[in-house]
Design goal:
The protein is an alpha+beta fold. It has eight helices and 19 strands. The chain has helices at 13-58, 182-186, 198-202, 206-209, 277-310, 312-318, 322-355, 357-389, and strands spanning 4-11, 60-61, 75-84, 88-90, 95-97, 101-121, 127-141, 166-169, 173-175, 178-179, 192-193, 213-215, 218-221, 233-240, 244-252, 255-257, 259-260, 266-267, 269-272. The strands form four sheets. Strands 1, 6, 7, 8, 11, 12, 13 and 14 form an eight-stranded antiparallel sheet that branches. Strand 15 and strand 16 form a beta hairpin. Helix 1 (13-58) packs antiparallel against helix 5 and helix 1 runs parallel beside helix 7.
Length: 396
């Protein structure tokens, strides 16, 4: 049986029009939600930035070799060598390492469905859609439910492997004389590969030792790693084991808790390597800036999509002549883009008037100037078209 299937469906102009009218409601929801999202994001960004500035002014750097009781309850910065109380182990497979975390990755070779769709407008307003389903054998975590495939026949995946992907964490992790909190340990994510060898295979439990072999630094269950078959399983390992960490938090006994800022945010920073307190706060400010821009872009896209969906019925109505519908769709897309850009900018400016008045007022003035410029350009073009359509004067 072929592993690629194609289906062609057609929808009438009336069905497309009804569908576009229904989408207006969803577009309205996106449009409305985008405003509070953008406004909230600016407040979050300002509160976080002010909180980090407050923390940077309050933090005290202390040596890691001893816990100073006089710094109890204060925001401190520490850089120290990482140690664990005992090796972290995967008890099911007998693999262990002197590390902060041991990560077991379990993959199975199985069928995966790839779907793509292409639509084109037809004269009369209808739409022809061509869908293609392609089935490939790939390595993937867990088990892909093949019963949900469009064409599950001859693409059935076997039961899930007996083991699952899992992270094992050391019971106690220290940086010098200080003990890292569970939240701080959770922020350590820089993992490196931990290959297994024949000695590791000898430590496998009796019930799985005969099922696995070692191939390319991984445990492999199957006949030939070079030509995998559906149902083959491979297990690889990674470790998180920084040699040095830099920490910022409130000294609580020998450990750390988050610092509560006046703006309502919290500070508990972790960085791998030896970083000064200013460097750590700079990275935190940079991360806040990046998050702010990502949410801004998300809010803008929600607004753009919402406006476009509000006018979508007009495009579908014009699709009776596909070329005209395409041109009208491009025009509405441009209108939605410019409208979203202006409205997003105004929303952000209003938020900054609330949180930082001087900057917000400047942004509103710029937004007003941009709107006036667009309006004047439109009026000039309208006047030019009217002049071009006027009849030339008759001379005798």
């Amino acid at each position: 049986m072929p592993d690629t299937f194609t289906s062609t469906t057609s929808t009438s102009w009336g069905s497309n029009l009804i569908g576009s009218i229904k989408s207006v409601f969803f577009g309205l929801i996106l449009f409305v939600i985008s405003f509070p999202l953008l406004f909230w994001n600016e407040g979050r960004a300002v509160r976080t930035s002010k909180g980090l500035t407050e923390g940077q002014g309050a933090v005290v750097s202390v040596p890691a070799d001893a816990v100073d009781a006089s710094k109890e309850g204060k925001l401190i910065h520490v850089t120290g060598a990482v140690k664990t109380d005992a090796p972290v182990a995967d008890d099911q497979l007998g693999v262990s390492a002197t590390a902060v975390k041991l990560i077991r990755n379990v993959e199975m070779y199985q069928w995966k469905e790839h779907e793509k769709s292409e639509s084109r407008s037809k004269i009369g307003g209808g739409t022809e859609t061509v869908k293609t389903w392609e089935y490939k054998k790939e390595w993937a975590n867990g088990r892909i439910d093949s019963s949900q495939f469009k064409h599950p026949e001859d693409h059935e995946n076997p039961p899930a492997p007996p083991f699952e992907t899992k992270t094992f964490t050391a019971n106690q992790v220290t940086a010098g004389a200080f003990t890292m909190s569970a939240e701080q340990i959770g922020q350590l994510t820089n993992a490196t590969s931990l290959p297994v060898d024949a000695a590791a295979a000898e430590k496998l439990p009796d019930d799985v030792r005969d099922k696995f072999k070692v191939a390319d630094g991984k445990f492999y269950q199957g006949e030939d790693p070079g030509t995998p078959k559906v149902g083959d399983v491979r297990v690889s390992f990674q470790v998180v084991n920084p040699t040095t960490v830099s920490l910022v938090g409130v000294q609580t006994g020998q450990s750390f808790t988050p610092y509560q800022t006046a703006t309502g945010t919290t500070i508990l920073l972790v960085e791998e390597g030896a970083l000064t307190a200013p460097q750590m706060f700079k990275k935190a400010q940079d991360a806040n800036t990046l998050m702010t821009w990502l949410i801004r872009i998300g809010g803008f896209f929600m607004m753009f999509l919402g406006i476009f969906m509000l006018f979508r019925p007009i495009v579908v109505f014009a699709d009776v002549l596909p070329l005209f519908g395409t041109m009208l769709g491009a025009g509405i897309g441009l209108f939605a883009f410019l409208g979203s850009a202006i409205l997003s900018f105004v929303t952000i400016a209003v938020a900054w008037v609330f949180y930082r008045p001087v900057v917000g007022i400047i942004m509103l003035v710029l937004a007003g100037a941009a709107f006036y410029w667009l309006l004047s350009v439109g009026m000039k073009k309208k006047a030019a078209r009217a002049a071009a359509m006027s009849p030339a004067p008759v001379t005798v």
